[in-house]
Amino acid sequence: MSSNRNIPLEFIRRRHVLTWREVEVGVREQWLRRGDAVAIAVEQVERGGEAGDLLDLAGVLRDDEDQVAGLLSALVSRVPGNSEQDARLTWMRILLAWAYEKRSSFSDPLSIVEQVYVDFGYPNEIRHLVRYNPPDDSSSENGESYLLRMWGEYVGGA
Description:
Radius of gyration: 18 Å
Helix content: 55-70%
Shape: elongated
Oligomer: single chain
Order of helices and strands: HHHHHHHH
């Protein structure tokens, strides 16, 4: 999408409450900053979370952010949640929503959708948003404006 792959935490929060698996995947893929993972842990501690791994993550200082991945792994193994595949699908949706919001900054915004489609293993969920795929229905509507409108509807931003 751009050289800055991080999605602002405020944007994510408006759309979704991340599970620890989603946080782990986001940090690993650099869609989420390690400092954001620490901020999420701090918020959970402030709401009464007391688990050791959570407290350890909440206490990570900026100079020690290299510890975040290990602490996230410990949280994911202890806290039941969604699968790796489900977490990646959540991130696909977040990335597409972010790209849609920023689409005017791309010379070819639909190429971003195509790249996400490839990067996430050609998921059927977004097949209809990719311009080189034939339309799924008998609609006579097509073209880039149609795909942009469908993308907006998919991410809830139309």
